[in-house]
Design goal:
There is one protein chain. By secondary structure, the chain is mainly beta. The protein contains seven helices and 33 strands. The protein has three domains: 80 residues, Immunoglobulin-like (Sandwich); 371 residues, Alkaline phosphatase D (PhoD) (Purple Acid Phosphatase, chain A, domain 2, 4-Layer Sandwich), CATH 3.60.21; 84 residues, Immunoglobulin-like. Helices cover 13% and strands 33% of the residues. A hairpin with a 5-residue loop joins β25 and β26. α1 runs parallel beside α3 and α2 runs parallel beside α4. The radius of gyration is 24 Å and the shape is globular.
Length: 598
């Protein structure tokens, strides 16, 4: 969802030298670092992306999982190959692991090690688990500011996993949605993303943000998409930010889903299955049920809103959700959900039909089901709206659960906090803050579930300053929120060091001058996008040669220091065949790669 009531253009334009969209020098060719996700009690997904020396040939990759950062006590190792069909991403579902255990992992390709990642498996479903903590995040608009909340969470180092509730990326063109003129952060590609190559490139740029890399490197993530991973206010058969001139929605939707599964550490249900609704058992304490309220079965917003058959989940996903809730033996049933579940009205009218308010019959059906089946400790986690909320979930006189809404990482909310006005008409709202950015720490034990809201000090510079703002909890069996000034404290079990920033060995690695991150599309038709980084000031040269060594194109481009750069080249005049691309920085450093012209 895009918040439209903004006053974001009163700040003076300032030239800021800071940028975080540049990989560390030490991690070549793993410019996008490593990540892990979807932890179960005996397995976890580990991920990386290799930047090849040749964008046609496959790359062989080794991986190892160990109990120590020195990678001496190895428990699993293996090898696989990656290629352009998956944009040189690497995803391994590592099995045979022990429950509730920290592991370290690394990859090796092209003679170099990746940074080591740290991950953690979930406890066994039958295990008596005393407490759990998760960080809850959503809505990271790269152009709106620095991802300081990601850095804060990593440095706190006190959670099981990161729950990303959607809007990991944004699809807009450069300057298309709430750019922050105080920072040097620009969408690449600069146009609105529509194709598979577009989505891949946008993820590539996001994954070079150092705060994002650090959080991925040290914690498993459990992710769902919201709308901006495809297009604003999307539903099963379309989106507000998609029109006929942008091609078929079915093609754009598939491209968005494919890139999401390539670039994030999510476990597919089957090789070609792109569904994201799934469940995670965390001992006997929490069942985490992740749903898709966007692309799986949602009807269009604002159409036949009072139709009792209208759905936000789709019939099959709704039935699956009821079954998971009814069969759960965990003390807390936590729903990871994209859009606000509780009703919110102003002057008697729902204010957001993109949320569950636009699907009242299905929400009522689910509330009735929870009440009728005496499902206890139902808790909803929500992102999407860039602001902070807490609700009691009430079905008439019955208290059926609570809901916590996390603020955005960077995406704008409202210029003023009008929360008190909303609370007057909606007494089930127990907290609302509409202006600040940050995250929630969700702390769960046998007695209660508690949400702590933390806000970063600024988005305008790389700054790990933050502050606590609010805490609310619900006691087990009560389903009603109460205020507390006692912030939840982590268990000593989380006192485990972060993974080292650089690989354990840099033998054979030279100082980085140039890095060719991607060549899109490959094969190419009319245009070729070259994504590269350079650590030298000045101009860079691009040459295209045919296989006979003849220069067929020669282009100079201004350098951007250590920033990442994307250059579009017209290749429509080339005959079909294989060509060699040379990128040079004028200081004797040259990188070559092949590409195909259709």
């Amino acid at each position: 969802m895009k918040i439209s009531l903004l006053l974001l253009f009163f700040c003076p334009i300032i030239s800021i030298g800071q940028t975080s969209i540049t990989p560390l020098d030490c991690i070549e060719p793993f410019y996008h670092n490593v990540a892990s996700g979807d932890p179960l009690s005996d397995r976890v997904i580990i991920w990386t992306r290799v930047t090849p020396t040749d964008f046609i040939l496959p790359v062989n990759v080794d991986y190892s999982v160990a109990l120590d950062t020195g990678m001496t006590n190895i428990v699993v190792q293996g090898a696989l190959s990656t290629d352009a069909t998956v944009d040189y991403t690497v995803k391994v579902d590592v099995t045979g692991l022990q429950p509730d255990t920290y592991y370290y992992y690394e990859f090796k390709a092209l003679g170099n090690y990746s940074p080591r990642g740290r991950t953690k498996t979930a406890p066994l479903q039958v295990t008596s688990t005393d407490s759990l903590r998760f960080a809850v995040v959503s809505c990271a608009n790269l152009e709106a500011g620095f991802f300081n909340a990601y850095e804060v969470i990593a440095e706190r180092n006190d959670v099981e996993a990161i729950l990303m509730l959607g809007d990991y990326i944004y699809e807009y063109e450069e300057g298309g949605y709430a750019p922050n003129t105080n920072v040097d952060r620009v969408f690449d590609p600069t146009h609105e993303i529509l194709t598979l190559d577009d989505y891949r490139l946008r993820y590539s740029v996001y994954h070079m943000d150092q705060a994002l890399q650090k959080l991925h490197q040290n914690f498993p993530w459990i992710c769902v998409w919201d709308d901006h991973e495809s297009a604003n206010d999307s539903y099963e058969f379309g989106a507000e930010n998609h029109n006929g001139g942008e091609g078929q929605w079915v093609d754009r939707k598939l491209a968005a889903q494919t890139a999401f599964f390539e670039w994030l550490p999510i476990r597919p249900k089957a090789p070609s299955n792109l569904e994201i609704f799934r469940k995670f058992n965390y001992g006997n304490l929490v069942d985490l049920i992740m749903v898709d309220t966007r692309l799986h079965g949602r009807n269009e917003q604002g159409v036949n809103q009072n139709d009792p058959n209208r759905t936000i989940l789709g019939d099959d996903q709704y039935d699956w959700l009821e079954n998971e809730l009814q069969n759960s033996t965990a003390q807390w049933k936590v729903l990871g959900n994209q859009v606000v579940f509780a009703p919110v009205e102003l002057f008697g009218t729902p204010i957001n039909n993109d949320a569950w308010d636009g699907y009242p019959a299905e929400r009522q059906k689910l509330m009735d089901f929870i009440a009728l089946n005496s499902i206890s400790n139902f808790t909803v986690l929500t992102g999407d709206i860039h602001t902070s909320w807490a609700f009691n979930l009430e079905n008439g006189a019955a208290k059926v659960g609570v809901e916590f809404v996390t603020p955005s990482i960077t995406s704008p909310g409202l210029p003023i906090n009008a929360g008190p006005i909303l609370q007057l008409e909606n007494p089930h709202i127990k907290y609302v803050e509409l202006t600040k950015h940050g995250f929630i720490i969700l702390d769960v034990n046998a007695q209660r579930i508690q949400a702590d809201w933390f806000y970063v000090n600024t988005l305008n510079s790389i700054d790990a300053g933050y502050n606590w703002a609010k805490s609310l909890y619900s006691n087990s069996g009560v389903n009603q929120l109460q205020n507390t000034t006692v912030v939840s404290m982590p268990s000593p079990k989380y006192d485990i060091g972060l993974a080292p920033q650089c690989p354990r060995s840099t033998v054979g690695m030279e100082e980085q001058y140039l890095g060719l991150i991607g060549v899109y599309p490959n094969p190419a038709t009319d245009h070729l996008l070259i994504h590269f980084i350079g650590t030298n000031e000045g101009s860079y040269g691009i040459e295209i040669h045919d296989l006979k060594g003849r220069t067929v194109e020669k282009i100079a481009t201004d350098g951007l220091g250590s920033n990442s750069t994307i250059k579009s080249i017209d290749v429509s005049f080339l005959e079909a065949g294989i060509y060699i691309l040379n990128l040079s920085d004028g200081k004797g450093h040259v990188i070559s790669s092949k590409f195909i012209k259709k």
